[in-house]
Predict the structure.
Amino acid sequence: MSEADQSAPLLQPARPKKTDCEPCTVGAPLYMATFSDMAILLMAFFVLLLSMTEIDLKTWQKITGQIRLAFGTQSINLDLTIPTARSMIIDDFSPNEAAREITLDVRQRMETEGELIVRNTETYQNQFDIEREFLILEASLESEIERGEVIVKIQDEQLVVEVPETSRSAGSGEGQSEDRSGIINQQLINVSAKVAQIQSEITRDINVFAIRESSIESNEDSTAKLLNKLQALRENLRTEIENDLLEVEMRDDAIYITVDGDDSFASGSAELRPNFVVLLGEIGRSIAGLTDSIAIEGHTDNIPIAFRDRFQSNWDLSAARASSVATTLMSQPSLEDIQYEVLGFADTVPVASNDTAQGRSQNRRIEIKMSDFN
């Protein structure tokens, strides 16, 4: 290579000219729009499903009770401030200060057996509503019932808690009115606070009342009188009871005579069978002179009426059967002056499950209720 060639500058090779490319698209790819539409539609579909869902309270309580029983619950001690009478409404007293007493309230972190039964709602799943709630209330107030501080009962299809009032808390001061003034029983306040906590486990309202000793004695006298009437009625109907033709029992300060509906009426009919007419004659002679008023209740099962030429529903059938019984009793001279009440309940007050033939047979019945005694 010559010296001239070595002194010449080195030339870079020419680069190829760039060609224009297609402009990049703006926004998300097309499949993203389809995916988002599908997600929105699925969300709307599940929202519709949720809006149409019905949550059964009993089923929910049963499930939560099983979960609590399996995993345990945390015991929380609430610091309840005892209120004065100025913030409470009590029928028997006018506003006044609460009795100043020192109450021994031992709070344990371990749940008692009664509180555990309250949370285990599965224990009472086969009971009817008011009976199940009565058992829950009775178990929660078990210690107070054993000490004789409260009386729990079912009265007129309602839960009632009665707190006996001692003479010490009935009143103080000679110038106060016996009916409208006095010191509020400390036990009543404690029971009311505990009932307020139990109310969260029970859908039915709980009524708390303070009763005086005189009222307790009067109730005891009424109960004794009712038991005497019950014993006399059972003695008069001993033969019918032994032959399983009827049952005589006391419920809610009243005496009930229960007669099986299958032996009394034909299926779907309100006409009395001849043997039932004879039985009503014996019942009428037994209750004559015992009461001034009778309530006759007709009950059926939940099976709809097959032939609706006369009765459109079980409501009509139960009322017609009760009316037939009332007419037969009124025909007896000794029962003419008695006040009658005819009620038809259809299948709303069952005594057994309608899922079995035996249970439906027990629900088809006539009940004669007596509560106003001579």
Summary: Strands lie at 151-155, 158-165, 206-212, 246-251, 254-260, 293-299, 339-344, 365-370. Confidence is low (pLDDT under 50) at residues 85-98, 102-127, 167-182.
